[in-house]
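Data availability (excerpt). The following record was deposited with the supplementary files.
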Amino acid sequence: MSTSAHSRADLVRHSVYEFALTTVLLFVVVSLVRWLAAPGSSLAIDHPDTLFAVAGIAVAALIAALMYSPLGRRSGGHLHPGVTVFLWSSGLFPGRTVLPYVAAQLAGSVAGAALAGLVWGKTVRQIGYAAVHPAPGTGAVELFLIEGAALAAVFVAVTLVMTRPSLGAFVPAVIGIGVGVVIATLGTVTGASINPARAFGPAVLSGTYAHFWNYMIAPVAAPALVGLAHRAWRSRRATALSPASAEA
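Predicted structure:
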């Protein structure tokens, strides 16, 4: 098999892994909403702050587990178009893989939410497949800025960890904890999607498109900007450490 054919096969395989991982992510997330937030559920949590705190802890553990899983290790465990774009804009991920990965993640979003609907039945349809929505009165600009700033903060933390090779193994934990903290602290305001793959499937299946583009664009734009800053910093650092610079 030629190198290019082997490379294409790897891309297809890794994209399938991303699809599978995102399917699991959305199935569990929609199931959490079904059991913790649906009216009449025996496990329902009535207090919104407590609900999002519990959800944040659960999702943090889930994301870290999926990223550390065998499939996550093979594909990189992105589970999020923003992660893919962040790595690409940082110069750490080839551009030709971005669209296949993002397509796989969004397809997995639909598949996971649909699977939850099949397993849990009409209750999932009644809660709109756990479609994300902000608190009443939260404007479009406010939502965009909060979602973007929150995710930018997570990726700044990830970047700081990535600059220390000895801490590389902790990146999944940092991402999981960061996302969990955002869900716990901002869930009652923005709905705390912070992942286009979290918003896409539930919106498509429920037909709920209020603030849809905010939830799709802000969590990609923010990581892209952090990635570009990370790339520029690495470039300046490499220039400063080059022999020519040292001799000058």
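Summary of structural features: The chain has one domain: 9-237.
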